[in-house]
Amino acid sequence: MPRLRLLAPVLPLLAAFTLGAWPSAAADAGSDGPAIIVLDGSGSMWGNVGTERPAKFDLARQALRQSLSTLSPRVKTGLMSFGQRRRADCSDVEVLAPPEAGPPERILSIADKLNPKGKGPLSLALREAAKQIPTETGGSIIVIHDGVDNCSQDTCAAATDIAKANPKARIYLIGFGLAPAEAKSLACVGAATQGKVLQAQDSAQLADALAETLTLANLERVDPSTGTAVPMPKAATPPTTTPAGAPGLRLTASLTDDGKPLAAALNWRVAKADAPGVILKSARTRELAVDLDPGSYVVEAELGQVTARKTLEVASSGPTAAKLALGAGVLNIKGQADRSGAALANPLITVFAKADGKEQPVWLGRDGATQLVLPAGSYLVRIEDGLASQTTEVTLAAGAGADVSPVLGTGRLELSAVSAANGEALKDVTYTVEEDDPDSPAGRREVARSADPAAAFTLKAGTYYVSAHSGIAEAHDRIALGSGATIKHVATLNLVPITVIVSASATADGSAAPQQPVVIRIRSEDGQSREIARIHGMTGTFKLPPARYRVEAEVIGLNVKSLGVIDLTSGRGGNVQLKLEQGEVSVNAGANAGRHWRIKDGDGRTVMHSGRSAAGSFQLAPGRYVLLSDVADKETEQSFDLKAGERRQLTAGTP
Asked: How far apart are CA 163 and CA 403, in angstroms?
């Protein structure tokens, strides 16, 4: 029985499976129905590909002339184009020649007159082309284009709708100069319609791709030089006899029991039935051929998330041919930011298997467009992009493909902040992002916050309120974020720079530097005296919002202080000079070294005492003081005045 395995993504090995492994209906039918040629007429077709000088449109017309000349006149061919008439018109799709039998010059002469100029409504062109194909007989749509749909339409959904309406219609896309990611995003078209998606990066590859497409479409051909019919390829038939050779196994795999062999490479393992842990042969290949002694063997085939196991008997008469059915389907996942179809850059994709009322995660990845081979069953696909997420339920049938391509409608908000217009970038900044919320008491709720100076958020499209905070400064902005958009917003905090320079009066010995560290503080001048900022040292630079402030410089642990007021309401900064006026006092304890003393200022506050002045010399602000000393259980007082720059020597216990 097939079983689910939690494995790494299978994109590399699925490339062949996605673009070419689905069985072509051409192998099973005759030349059945018309071929609609769709030629990209968007303005980008006048660009170049690689180093070739002719425009892509000229190269495409040359390739059409070369390839269509090999078609039989009995083949019904039609011609359509899009974007060739009007600029910026996503409805510009035109049937230039309805499908009719006749020589190829009938449509080549029309193609020679086209002049690309507009948009690229690829999805609408496919839908209109499908209307030209009868549902009874089927037919082919052959498209030469150089880009994905840029008219906000889902090409995968269009292909799925076409396949449901006309299961016999096949679509062959030939991407001319597409980027790998663009080509990958269109693989769903071939898978949905049993067609194929081909890529060409120069004129030679384009000619080869067109020739291959005409063969896959099973169109009747002629030799251009002689006009004689060329036999169409016959459908491949399984061998009716036992393959010749030595005893062994000849193995293929398919999605279902009645499905055709897969073209993708699988991981094969072969072991004896009585020793399943001993691998006799392991290989990564599409088909496995291995010679073995007659007996019973266990064979495993692994593709993507699925492993099928089967016990086979190897006969002695020759090779034993067998096919392992995976019982699986292909799940195509593409998270889109908007309707343009561009894949999300770095989403988180989680796939859950639903069984017995439970949800079990089976795959986790960050590729915006990925494909998984999974056992048939029910799944939940959750795609998360930043703060946006969407969960889709999908049922995957064996042998079928299913597309999950939700539009998350996200945008990217990139924030930075500067101190002022044309000012320097701020590093100490915090951002908050809010959105409207009628249920919140404030009418808004916070959805994101970051202290990264260059913060980036992925958010659902909408209106947001962004605040940038640096200290007491803040800036508030209202930003409309569109789906698929990237908004680079710079918050301007209008900060005014000031520099505070502190000096000190010299004492009698010429010393000007305070003995203790100095702190500079900025306080609000609003009556509350809130501390706004501080810095240690004799010089400090601050960036402040326009307002009035009180500036303080203080010697830590002493009463030496300087005050000032600065008005920044005009938005002009500058330098602030503060001077610490101080004098020096030394106290001699006298004959009793253990004598206690203290100094009080004019307000009665103790500014120094013997327990703090081990050095015996210290600095005080100018003013009137009292030296109090304890002598023989008696307290003596000695009043003194201290001037700026003055040095006083006092003796404790002296009245």
From this structure: 13
Torsion angle of C-alpha atoms 556, 562, 565, 568, degrees rounded to 10: -60
- Confidence tier at 594 by pLDDT (50, 70, 90): low
Could you please state the CATH topology (level 3) that the domain comprising 248-325 is classified under: Immunoglobulin-like (2.60.40)
d(CA 301, CA 282): 10
Amino acid at 47: G
Would you say the CATH fold of 328-404 matches that of 6-230?
no
CB 266 within 8 A of CB 300: no
- pLDDT given for residue 219 in this prediction: 84
DSSP 529-552: --EEEEEESSEEEEEE-SSEEEEE
Level-2 CATH architecture, domain 583-651? Sandwich (2.60)
| CATH architecture assigned to 496-580 | Sandwich (2.60)
Separation of alpha carbons 554 and 561, rounded Å: 4
**Helix, coil or strand: residue 99:** strand
Confidence of residue 41 (pLDDT cuts 50, 70, 90): very high
Given the candidates 3.30.930.10, 2.60.40.1120, 3.90.470.10, 3.90.930.60, the CATH classification of the domain at 328-404 is: 2.60.40.1120
Mean pLDDT, residues 445-465 taken together:
93
> What residue spans define the domains of the chain?
6-230, 248-325, 328-404, 410-492, 496-580, 583-651
Q: Is the pLDDT of residue 488 over 70?
A: yes
- Strand bridging mode 597-601 / 606-609: antiparallel
pLDDT higher than threshold 70 for residue 6: no
DSSP, collapsed to helix, strand or coil, labels residue 494 as coil
User: What share of the chain has pLDDT > 70, as a percent?
Assistant: 88
What CATH number labels 6-230?
Answer: 3.40.50.410
By residue count, the chain amounts to: 655
Phi, psi of 206 (to 5 degrees): -65, -45
Whether residue 548 is predicted with pLDDT greater than 60 in this model: the reply is yes
pLDDT, mean of residues 415-436: 92
pLDDT at position 286: 86
Domain 410-492 has CATH 3.30.420.10: no
pTM of the model: 0.48
